[in-house]
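Blackboard transcription, Thursday session:
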Amino acid sequence: MLEHLKERNRAWAARKVSVDPSFFTRLAGQQAPEYLWIGCSDSRVPANEIVDLDPGELFVHRNVANLAPPQDANYLSVLQFAVDVLKVKHVMVVGHYGCGGVAAAVDGQRRGLVDHWLHPIREVHHHHRHELEAIPEERDRLDRLCELNVMRQVRNVASDVFVQDAWARGQELSVHGWVYSITNGLVTDLGATLSGPEDLLQLD
Ligand code: CO
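(Written on the board underneath:)
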């Protein structure tokens, strides 16, 4: 079963060792990434590859539509470990244009459980409905919603108690909002970086 994948795995591990013989032994000893990536599960948005980082360099959490819901135990566990234990210096929420999750949140169709998961995006949509309704092309409207969703999640991360407590004890930590373009492979920084409680207070 899945022999082709196991074969590819063996070839990959061999390639890594041929370039750097101590690659895996060094990695096994310690994990010390400086970044937490919160991104979409979409197969076209592979975190490490996009920023060209090796194993060990990027802590990753992915879910449908790159959400940071303050009640989600999975996301919260990743965030706490990244902030409190790994002491990452940067958290980047990375959305992507053409996100199927974002589109599904607002197309009015019923899909089941995922409709509940995507509910925060409908709230973002409602909050920014005047701006969004003024955009004539649906594709552009959805792409803007992808950006607005990222900025909302950046705020969620920054207002979380784990991040607030880290800032209160003087830990260096910034939360960034990025959007990735599937069509050209490039990341756009939305300029929504929050690096302390005073940045959060300036919003709205
Ligand atoms: Co997506």
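Lecturer's comment: The pocket of cobalt (II) ion is lined by residues 40, 42, 65, 96, 99-101 (CB under 6 Å).
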